[in-house]
Fold this sequence. Notes:
By secondary structure, the protein is an all-alpha fold. Helix content is 76%, strand content 0%. The protein is built from 5 helices and no strands. Helix 2 runs antiparallel to helix 3. The longest helix is centred in the N-terminal third of the chain and has 37 residues, at 31-67. Mean pLDDT is 83; it is low at 148-155.
Amino acid sequence: xxxxxxxxxxxxxxxxxxxxxxxxxxxxxxxxxxxxxxxxxxxxxxxxxxxxxxxxxxxxxxxxxxxxxxxxxxxxxxxxxxxxxxxxxxxxxxxxxxxxxxxxxxxxxxxxxxxxxxxxxxxxxxxxxxxxxxxxxxxxxxxxxxxxxxxxxxx
Length: 155
């Protein structure tokens, strides 16, 4: 039969390796620059993931509360909303500090290309996900998923 490629340990690991390769190419990183860039970049990604997990936990609590028989109070909702906003602000501050620190070893041109890369990469991922959903059996595409989500709520 057909041989399968060995799978990476973590589902996102292949994507992360591709992203590192693309970043190296796009920014034209020297070996020295890559040695400085990627440890910092990986540390940033880890911090962002930790904050995102905190946000997910807040949303999980909100979802459980909303699905229970108890009404959520305005005070509880305001507290969760403020926490979500604070966490999002932490992400922005960490990304800003990371970017500012890049001037230690990247040129302005490389820093500008990094910003463009991050925006384009996220857009490409979203487009790829939409395209994959369109190709699912039964023709259930992104718009159909959105309709289903609107009917059933966001959880």
